[in-house]
Structures are given as C-alpha cells and as structure tokens.
Amino acid sequence: MLIEHTLLPTRLEHVPLAVFAHRQVASCAVAAEVAGLIRARQRQGRTVVLGLATGSTPVSLYAELVRLHREERLSFANVITFNLDEYRGLSADHPRSYGRFMRRHLFDLIDLPETRIHLLDGAVPDAAVDAHCREYEQKIRAAGGIDFQILGIGRNGHIGFNEPGSARASRTRLVALDPLTRQDAAGDFGGEERTPRCAITMGIGTILEARRIVLMAWGWRKAGPVRAAVEGEVTTQAPASFLQDHDQVQFVLDHDAASALTRYRLPWLLGARACQGRTWDQRPIRRVAAPASEIHRP
Ligand code: F6R
Q: Containing H/E element for 150?
C-alpha cells in the first residue's frame, strides 16, 4: 500500500518522497518504473543505462525485475549496467564481492548480455587503480551516461561508498571505509578484522550526473540518515544530502525509514493538511510520546 506519494510538507523536505507500508510494494513500484523505461527504449530501438547498487536494500527490487523477466517477458537485451562500487581486494568473482552478489540476485537470472555488464574490479593492482577508475568513468560516458541510478543509503548517510566528508564533485576512486560501514559489513566477512578497509566507488559527482535517481531505504535504522538527507542542510557530513541538488531524484521509503521525518514525528508543525487522515493512536504520532532513545524503534 502506498501511504503517501506527495510533496506535502515541502517547507521541510527538500526531495520528493514516496512512502509505502512495505518494502516489497515499494520495490515493485520502482521495478515498474525501471521496466517502463526499458520497454520504452525497446520501442525506440535504443539501449538504456542502469546504475545499480548492492546490499540488502535492492534485493527485493532485483527479485521483482527477475519476476517481470520470467512472468511478464521483460527483456534486458537492450540494458547496459554499471555498478556503484566494490570492496578493495575482491575480484568480481570473489564469493563476497558485489560482482558475485549481482550475478546471484540479477545478472544470472535475466537475459542481460554479458558484454553490457560493467563492474568495478576491486582486485586491480595498486598502480592501476586510478586508470581503472578513469576508464570506468569513460565507459559510462561512452554508453551515453546513466539513465536511471538505484541507490541505497548507509547508516552514516553514504551513497555508494562515498562516506561522510566526500566532496560533491568526487569521481570514481579508491576510498577508505568508515568504521560504521565496516561494522555493518562485518557479518558478511566473518568479523570486522576480516572486513575490507577500502573500496572503489563511483563518486558523488558521477552519481549526480545520472538523469534519474531513486534512493530506496527500508527499516528504522535508516530513519536518521533519511531525515538528514531529506530535511537537513546539504553537507559533506551527510553525503545523501547532495541529492537535494538533483531535479529528478526520488526517495522511496518504507514506513519505518520515513518515521523520523517531521511529517510523521511532529505532523502538527506542518499544518492541518499533514494531519489529515491520521488519528492519535497511529504509530508515527505515538512515537513522539516515546523517550527520544526509542523514537526510531519499530
Ligand atoms: C552498495 C552501496 C551502499 C549501500 C548502503 C546500504 O552498492 O552502494 O551505499 O547501498 O550501504 O546498504 P544496505 O542496503 O545493505 O543497507
């Protein structure tokens, strides 16, 4: 169920949002937009360039795209893909690599031509990293630029692996990972000690050049960074806040990821329209009465 798909309290919100009750439904809405774009380009005999994210957030989106391929004959024959990032030290076929993740969740399950898949190589020798990054940017340009960029958001507000402090103009490059990012990844690597310390990522400048950007976020752990990106100032401390500068961006959220936004925490601040249809026993309003430490709990 779509809860709200509005620009309602725009005084405080600097990016358009779509808020859904459940991530599956939200993912289906994003998949429908991607499928619509792919089909429109097929009718024109053109390719379409997708920028893809990994991590837990897009898993339900990729599952829906695979379903559309199997059950509704969505072909990916005209699709070109560029992934956002890769851990330093992992080649694209390493079991924990984002390359393998993409094959498992999407590439091996659809008819995307192998030659149209672009992944960063985390195992490129030190001396070749800069050239590899420049070449990746060059390939994006040669493909005509990214038409549709999918993003998740880290608990520290990162997009790709552009950690707090990353510059707006940053391009594809080698970066050190923030301790929080490594902590969140530690489960996949069998502990923090074994978790890579660096990654190669598209830059914020690279991401902002995409023609359309959809950032997806699920769960209360993302509520704080989502609020900072949507309602806060544009700052290097919250890299996703740079998306406020893009005129075709949308945040697609589930209820919990949206729960720290003023429209749910303090709807009365936004006037009568924001309170319409809500009653005092609904969850976003009850949260306001909870101790601050519990505000983001489900
Ligand atoms: C992954 C990426 C990251 C993730 C973010 C959220 O390619 O670019 O920015 O989107 O760390 O990760 P999950 O979805 O696992 O919460």
A: strand 148-151
Cα 4 to Cα 194: distance, rounded to the nearest angstrom: 42
- Average pLDDT estimate for 177-198: 97
Provide φ and ψ at 17, rounded to 5°: -125, 150
Protein residues with CB under 6 Å of any ligand 1 atom: 53-57, 84-85, 98, 152-154, 158-160
Confidence class for position 215, pLDDT limits 50, 70, 90: very high
Taking CA atoms, 60 is separated from 64, 72, 73, in Å, by: 6, 17, 18
Mutate to test the pocket of ligand 1, among 82, 84, 172, 215 (most ligand atoms within 8 A of CB): 84
pLDDT one-digit tens code per residue, 36-93: 999 999 999 999 999 999 999 999 999 999 999 999 999 999 999 999 999 999 998 8
Query: What are 216's strand-pairing partners?
Result: 252
Contact call for residues 31 and 64 (beta carbons, < 8 A): yes
Give the pLDDT score at 10.
57
Cβ distance 17 to 258 under 8 Å? yes
Please give the domain boundaries of the chain with CATH numbers for all domains.
Answer: 6-289 (3.40.50.1360)
Q: How far is the CA of 215 from the centre of ligand 1 (A)?
A: 10
Q: What are phi and psi of 49, to 5 degrees?
A: -105, 120
Question: Angle at the Cα of 258 (from 253 to 260), degrees rounded to 5?
Answer: 160
